[in-house]
Amino acid sequence: MSKSDNIYATPLEEVSSFSFDHKVVEVFPDMIKRSVPGYTAIIDGIGQIAKKYVHPNTNIYDLGCSLGAATLAIRQSVNDSSCKVIAVDNSSAMIERCRLIQSGYNFDMRVDVIEADINDLTFENASLVVLNFTLQFLPRGQRLQLLQKIHQGLNKNGVLVLSEKLTMSSDELDAHIIDIHHDFKKQNGYSDMEIAQKRAALENVLIPDTREQHYTRFQKSGFSQYDTWFQHYNFASFIAVK
């Protein structure tokens, strides 16, 4: 049972940089639900996309899997014993809990839950790769190279699903949409102090791109088709087809 997210509910003399540690793992489902508009719809959508694009005898990669919500959606939607999900995260706390969660379900589709840096992976025989709010935590200089490696490891007509927080095209519009997102958080019970301290913790940790930057990266990586399939405020999910 997920605990309520109160990590930033008391004043902190110094706000440390955000990390996916044991404190975050304990409250992660509540944090995501109250912080990321449309998250449940995106997870459901990933399951539906998997139904359409996953082929027998292929691999599926869930990169930056956290507690494995996307992995569960894929296993539930496809559940083909000839396929395998490879769920990867560099947080030992997340991986420990993800393994426990995945072991509680009896699906035919296999899953390997691996603690690793996704930049060190080799992708092969992939019909679907998921980067669900993961790329934004990588240094910008690493993002194109990762997408190029993913593209190389995808089979023909294989798909990348990439979900990210966006920066809007103009500073004024970006500021307004950020305010609307903060209102969304307030409606979900976060105080102004919690919002401010969480924002400080994520500064220089979560670095969002514009839609145009994502599209340029898809093009440079070699994807033949790409578009936005979901957006709620400044949170979006893209689909890119090899």
TrEMBL record:
GO process terms (BP): tRNA wobble uridine modification
Reactions catalysed according to its record: prephenate + S-adenosyl-L-methionine = carboxy-S-adenosyl-L-methionine + 3-phenylpyruvate + H2O
Record key words, sorted: S-adenosyl-L-methionine, Transferase
Binding-site residues, S-adenosyl-L-methionine: Y39, G64, C65, S66, D89, N90, D117, I118, N132, R199
Enzyme class: transferase
GO molecular function, one term: carboxyl- or carbamoyltransferase activity
Annotated InterPro entries: CmoA (IPR005271), Methyltransf_25 (IPR041698), SAM-dependent_MTases_sf (IPR029063)
Superkingdom of the organism of origin: Bacteria
Documented EC number(s): 2.1.3.-
Domain Methyltransferase: 60-158
Functional summary from the UniProt entry: Catalyzes the conversion of S-adenosyl-L-methionine (SAM) to carboxy-S-adenosyl-L-methionine (Cx-SAM).
Subunit description: Homodimer.
PANTHER family: CARBOXY-S-ADENOSYL-L-METHIONINE SYNTHASE (PTHR43861:SF2), TRANS-ACONITATE 2-METHYLTRANSFERASE-RELATED (PTHR43861)
Family recorded in the similarity comment: Belongs to the class I-like SAM-binding methyltransferase superfamily. Cx-SAM synthase family.
Entry protein name: Carboxy-S-adenosyl-L-methionine synthase
Gene name tied to this protein: cmoA
